[in-house]
Write a structure and sequence with these properties.
Helix 3 packs antiparallel against helix 12. It is built from 14 helices and nine strands. The chain has one domain (6-259, 267-363): TIM Barrel. The chain is α/β, with parallel strands linked by helices and 369 residues long. Helix content is 40%, strand content 11%. Strands 1-2-3-4-5-6-7-8 form an eight-stranded parallel barrel, surrounded by five helices. Strand 1 (70-78), helix 5 and strand 2 form a beta-alpha-beta unit. Residues 255-359 form the Biotin and thiamin synthesis-associated domain. Its cofactor is [4Fe-4S] cluster. Keywords: 4Fe-4S, Iron, Iron-sulfur, Lyase, Metal-binding, S-adenosyl-L-methionine. Its EC number is 4.1.99.19.
């Protein structure tokens, strides 16, 4: 049975986050100059839900202080939908009937050319769990190809060993994104029915292995809806804090993905409302003022418009969750989940500029890899 490690255990503050904190606790946390897990618990609590407006104002002020009026943009590129895993909530799980695809080298080059012509300088490469159709050698080759096109190349793939992450860094990879999905060990075991992803600690420790190997950035997150979100968010905060303390020269970012409709029809036990999502994002901005907070096209346009620059400093745009789909030469219809914001780059950037925000496609030079 997996156990949550002591350094990320959320239980000392969980009762406060679930309802033990009072309005005055949340107000004190809102005014704190040095917030920690105790203040985060108060800001995540139902009592803080009545303070959404002052939380938003402080979150926006902190976002502008640390990131200016900019919003960094990136695009995901799904390389493969092959996966041996049995994740109950995923459209790529091995028991789904959907056909499987993989970008061959020339196809991946077509997709990268298309993304480059759209103006992107940062790409996130994605696969399912490790399998013969999409193994380490395949991912490393795709990273090397992407590094010839983009200044910033990140991966969202299966957990690797330290030596493999070192190989990705040498190929031009800057960072990884790896969601723990849920930090609750019991529910983690329930959702990951079979496959390598059942190993809770192998996944939890992967960002540390990647930073130790020389990758510059680690993106963390929990898939909101799988478990009690306050449990997951407190553990996520402690996970990020532990990595920042040990790898202080590296960058950490936090994402807030919510469960979306997908092949298999999974429905979450803990749905997170728009209002709760906004509260959680503001709480993280108040407690981690200089950490990039990320919101993807999983969310609908009106919500993304409202969060841009108000806590959120980094967003995906023009996303496809199918394998390929950008060049017009590779057309597959089966995606990992449904995209809610289908706007193109021009429309999305016009929205940002109308809100007095500046879209940023490049904030990293390839020479620093």
């Amino acid at each position: 049975m997996n156990e949550v490690p002591e350094q990320i255990d959320p239980r000392p503050w969980l009762a406060a986050a679930r309802g033990g904190a009072r309005r005055e606790d949340a107000m004190r946390a809102l005014a704190s100059d040095e917030p920690g897990p105790r203040e985060l618990a108060a800001l995540l609590s139902p009592a803080a839900g009545a303070l959404l407006e002052p939380m938003a104002r402080r979150a926006q002020a902190l976002t502008r202080r640390h990131f200016g009026r900019t919003v960094q943009l990136y695009v995901p590129l799904y390389l493969s939908s092959h996966c041996p895993g049995g994740c109950l909530y995923c459209g790529f799980a091995s028991d789904r009937a959907a056909p499987r695809h993989r970008l061959e080298p020339e196809q991946s080059e077509d997709e990268m050319d298309a993304l480059k012509s759209m103006g992107f300088e940062e790409v996130l490469l994605l696969t399912g769990e490790r399998c013969p159709g999409a193994d380490y050698a395949y991912v490393r080759d795709c990273v090397a190809r992407a590094a010839r096109h983009f200044h910033n190349v990140n991966v969202e793939v299966f957990p690797m060993e330290t030596g493999e992450y070192r190989g990705l860094a040498e190929a031009g990879c800057s960072g990884l994104t790896l969601y723990q999905e849920t930090y609750d060990p019991g529910r983690y075991e329930r959702f990951h029915r079979w496959g390598p992803k059942r190993d809770y600690r192998a996944r939890l420790d992967a960002p540390e292995r990647a930073l130790r190997a020389g990758l510059r950035f680690a993106g963390l997150g929990a898939l909101l809806g799988l478990s009690d979100p306050r449990y997951d968010l407190l553990a996520l905060y402690r996970h990020a804090a532990a990595l920042r303390k040990q790898y202080w020269r590296s960058g950490i970012s936090i994402s807030f993905p919510r469960i979306r409709d997908q092949e298999g029809g999974f429905r979450p036990d803990f749905p997170v409302s728009d209002r709760e999502l906004a509260q959680f994002i503001y709480a993280f901005r108040l407690c981690l003022p200089d950490v990039p907070l990320v919101l993807s096209t999983r969310e609908r346009p009106a919500l993304r418009d409202g969060m841009a620059g108000v806590g959120i400093s980094k967003m995906s745009v023009a996303s496809r969750t199918t394998v390929g789909g950008y060049s017009g030469r590779t057309q597959y219809s089966e995606g990992q989940f449904e995209v809610s914001d289908g706007r193109g780059i021009d429309e999305f950037c016009a929205m940002l500029r109308a809100a007095n925000l500046e879209p940023v496609f490049k904030n990293w030079e390839a020479v620093y890899r």
